[in-house]
Amino acid sequence: MPEITASESAINLAEFICESDWIENIYDEPRVLIKQIESRKKDGHVGAMLMLEGLVRLSCNVPGYVTKEVICKIQGLITAEQQRKRNVPRLLPKHVGQYRDCWVGVKGGKYFFPDPEVVPALMNSLIDRIVWWQDNSRFQAWDQNVRAIARFHLDFEAVHPFADGNGRTGRALVYYLMRWAMLKPFIFTSMDKSELYYPCFIDPANVRPMEEYFFTKMGCPEIART
């Protein structure tokens, strides 16, 4: 098979998608993703990430704020695609692109996320904080912005606003917010998810582990200790 040439940005984005999916035990073919990125695919995980890239470019002229509609669109694109994959949970149509109306939990049901009735209010509060940060991030030091994004990610996953796709949607939003702050997005890697990534969620009130994870992935773990 001949080598497939691709831009560095397409390769990086394909790696981000692959790893984010692999964290959830969903497996992709990198070469296929690269082709989809280069052809500007409009649906699926690739379509979601390209939509966010478009918002970054648009923000030069029109504010590309995070909104409920943006978040639900991202989740909808990502989870609609999984309906066509093998060995991946199928979702009811009402759970694609909409906040959940059901309880969700982890660890075999030992921990449940907030009541679905409070999800809209919790998300409105989080979105308000993100938009405020978007308006003010240019006045903050880069490491302060990284800490803010780490906090947003921790809080988003603590709400778990969707029936499925929360991790992939949350990581896609991190990618976008890093680009918004003119920072190079890092890759959430699947190989160390149990050792480094998942432990960051043990205590939603303690953002320090997530900050350390972010700075370590960015190649500057010493910043987290300051």
Automatic annotation (TrEMBL):
Keywords: ATP-binding, Nucleotide-binding
Active site, renumbered: 160
UniProt-listed InterPro entries: Fido (IPR003812), Fido-like_dom_sf (IPR036597), Fido_containing (IPR040198)
Domain Fido: 66-216
Organism superkingdom: Bacteria
Originating organism: Candidatus Yanofskybacteria bacterium RIFCSPHIGHO2_01_FULL_44_17
PANTHER family hit by this protein: FIDO DOMAIN-CONTAINING PROTEIN, FIDO DOMAIN-CONTAINING PROTEIN DDB_G0283145
Presence of the UniProt keyword Nucleotide-binding in the record: yes
Molecular function GO labels: ATP binding
Pfam families in alphabetical order: Fic (PF02661)
Protein name: Fido domain-containing protein
Residues annotated as binding ATP: 164-171, 206
